[in-house]
Specification:
It is found in: Membrane. By secondary structure, this protein is an all-alpha fold. Helices cover 75% and strands 0% of the residues. It contains 22 helices and no strands.
Length: 474
């Protein structure tokens, strides 16, 4: 019996009779199943990813807390080098990690790399030269590389296209909000200054490394496999999840992953466009994560105030991001919400760069956080909604995050020490990147609109994405 026949047989069991459809399944059973999936998947993924963000971007906090002096990072471009070299392996190893995910097992692979990078993060608290710091940052990039694309891939296989962004935004907001308070967390850990003979900035790495190690254990216990491999749902619940996905886009079960397929998917220019959009959207995010404490200190705030004031700009982003996700799923639309969010972000970066008043500049950081955090999940949903098949989804998510990591490389090299304290050059490049993002968005959306029209008029030689009845989400 084929996998497809197995799915159909199991689906009939879930509804109690042969050949019944998803519409005949008890809706309360469906709601309870989805609610259980949400609670089982989203919190653990969000918590682990939040510490991936913290472990990746805590350099600015440690620099402000004294690492600058102890490791002589202000000499030349040492600080920028330590930040940017993280992204070299992080960029190169995204796709290989996604391609082996199903073979190794999602839980095994993800819990292993979380434990490994937690150990590296802990080790960063004991470096004595800036070169040792660089080596550990590179190793951190190796281990974190496949984590985020794997999360996106896994999440996309559990939900229908137009309920995905709400879940993605919930996951993302939980992660980024926790990550946004990393400066406060770093400040608290820095108060351990002198304990055990360690400087405050060292305690930032040590404590955050210990927390990551704990999360690695939790990941092994709770991170889910793919729907067809899960072991926490009943057979009836599993059948319901798979049937819903098959009805929505016809790819509930994985298709064989071959080198030929990977190369074929890489020829699709649209997945490169998604990646470029994510690259441009990541610039403001990395800029704020890495450099906001330093920019605030340049405004005249003390070290303590700079760390504490770096957290509030993430607060208003939470309700905005969730509202955008709810509206985008409700109206099955993405591009307009991306455009609005990007414009808000651009205004924020402009104020942060060119406003005379420090109060207005600080307000710009709020707008940057609001717009950027609203745009990123919508771009992720926009890209995921418009691909079909597990093989293409694995390539698309890995390529998206691979190109997005270039945003981190760019951010860590356009904010250089000689431009302190205003960093006008770096902020200007970030501002221009948002204009380019809008141009790509318009081109891509017009292309999708035209393809949908040709499909409706029967003028396409084959269905969109090779799937009958499939239309692009605009």
């Amino acid at each position: 019996m084929s996998e497809k026949q197995d799915l159909e047989k199991t689906s009939s069991i879930s509804s109690g009779k042969e050949g019944s459809s998803i519409s005949e399944v008890d809706r309360e059973f469906e709601r309870k199943t989805l609610r259980y999936v949400d609670w089982r998947i989203l919190p653990i993924l969000a918590m682990v990813y939040s510490f991936a963000l913290i472990d990746r971007t805590n350099m600015g906090a440690a620099y402000t807390a004294g690492m600058k002096t102890d490791l002589q990072l202000a000499v030349g471009n040492r600080f920028n080098l330590a930040n940017s070299l993280f992204f070299l392996p992080y960029t190169l190893l995204q796709l290989p990690g996604n391609l082996i995910l199903r073979k190794v097992g999602a839980r095994n692979w993800l819990s292993f790399i979380v434990l490994a990078w937690g150990a590296v993060e802990l080790g960063m608290g004991f470096v004595h030269t800036w070169r040792q710091l660089v080596v550990l940052r590179v190793l951190l990039g190796v281990l974190e590389a496949s984590f985020f694309p794997s999360l996106l891939f896994i999440l996309s296989t559990w939900y229908k296209r137009h309920e995905y962004q709400t879940r993605l935004a919930t996951f993302y907001v939980l992660a980024v909000t926790t990550g946004g308070f990393s400066s406060i967390l770093a400040y608290v850990f820095s108060l351990l200054n002198g304990r055990g003979g360690l400087a405050g900035w060292r305690w930032i790495f040590v404590m955050e490394g210990i927390i990551t190690l704990f999360l690695g254990i939790m990941a092994f216990l709770f991170i889910p496999e793919f729907p067809d491999q899960n072991n926490f749902l009943t057979p009836e619940q599993t059948a319901l999840i798979l049937k819903r996905i098959d009805d929505d886009r016809g790819d509930a079960l994985p298709d064989p992953l071959t080198t030929q397929k990977v190369l074929h998917h890489l020829k699709d220019w649209t997945i490169w466009a998604y990646g470029l959009m994510f690259l441009l959207a990541s610039l403001p995010s990395y800029s704020q994560s890495f450099f906001l404490p330093i920019i605030l200190k340049g405004m005249g705030w003390s070290t303590t105030a700079s760390l504490l004031l770096s957290a509030p700009p993430y607060g208003p982003a939470v309700p905005y991001t969730l509202l955008v996700a709810w509206l985008a799923d409700r109206y099955k639309h993405r591009s307009g919400f991306i455009a609005i969010s990007v414009i808000i972000c651009t205004v924020g970066v402009t104020l942060l760069a060119f406003a005379k008043s420090n109060d207005v500049r600080y307000f710009g950081a709020f707008l940057n956080g609001i717009g950027n955090n609203g745009a990123i999940p919508t771009i992720l949903a926009y890209s995921s909604n418009n691909v079909v098949s597990h093989s293409k989804r694995s390539v698309q998510t890995a390529l998206l995050v691979t190109l997005g990591s270039f945003g981190g490389i760019i951010a860590t090299n356009i904010y250089v020490a000689k431009d302190a304290p205003r960093y006008t050059k770096g902020l200007s490049v970030t501002m221009a990147s948002q204009g380019l993002l809008l141009v790509i968005l318009v081109i891509l959306t017009l292309h999708f609109k035209r393809q949908n029209r040709l499909q409706r008029e029967g003028k396409r030689s084959k269905p969109i994405e090779g799937q009958e009845g499939f239309y692009y989400t605009l």
